[in-house]
């Protein structure tokens, strides 16, 4: 399920029972007009802060907080979030069913626009994902360098599980999210997608064709490929196969 960021409302509605989390705060409140923020960020410094939805502890509602504008490091991109899905993995964290560092920003099914590259980011990455690119992010963010990544098993990336899943950070052991008021670090569940901007390692981003809408495409990064992987690799289904489907949930119905 994906909801787009709206410029008309600042309300945050949460209905866990209906598996609905509508993110509808506005980038324009902190950044001037959307177009000015997107066009001006890279060359003029852009906004100095953003807002994001923070998970504090199980059973406590998310709160909207202001953050210092996150800064990408080498090999990372700053993405202006356009849409973010709500996956049950996020809800597991929010219910305390999956232990995770807190406070943190959940949300790991994003689409967005590239607005900056970390310094010393290789030119090949900048050429592949230039400023203004439409992108979709992946739930598992491969480092590209570990034992598993180099042999094409990015879903087992050692850095992702050792740092992001175990500590809520990126691969230098640090988060990119700090509260505006007191500088307190806030951890990242994947890229921390329920925020106006997020920092994402380049290996976790794919170009989203302009023909595909931001909102509906957000689930590509987790729900769609979870179902695809189950069908293609676990069940080894091929076109033309006859199958019996027993139970269809949120992932299966994609
Ligand atoms: Zn997910
Ligand atoms: Zn890796």
Summarize the structure.
The chain is α+β, with helices and mostly antiparallel strands and 254 residues long. Helix content is 23%, strand content 24%. It has a single domain (2-221), classed as Alpha-Beta Complex (Quinone Oxidoreductase, Chain A, domain 1), CATH 3.90.180.
Report on the architecture of this protein.
The chain has helices at residues 28-31, 34-44, 88-94, 123-128, 147-150, 158-167, 214-217, 223-234, and strands at residues 2-4, 12-15, 20-23, 49-54, 63-68, 76-85, 104-105, 110-117, 134-137, 177-178, 185-188, 197-201, 205-207. With 254 residues, it is an alpha+beta fold. The longest helix is centred in the last third of the chain and has 12 residues, at 223-234. Mean pLDDT is 84; it is low at 1-44. Bound molecules: zinc ion (ZN) (2 copies). One of its GO terms (molecular function) is oxidoreductase activity. It comes from Panicum virgatum (Blackwell switchgrass). It holds the Pfam family ADH_N. Its cofactor is Zn(2+).
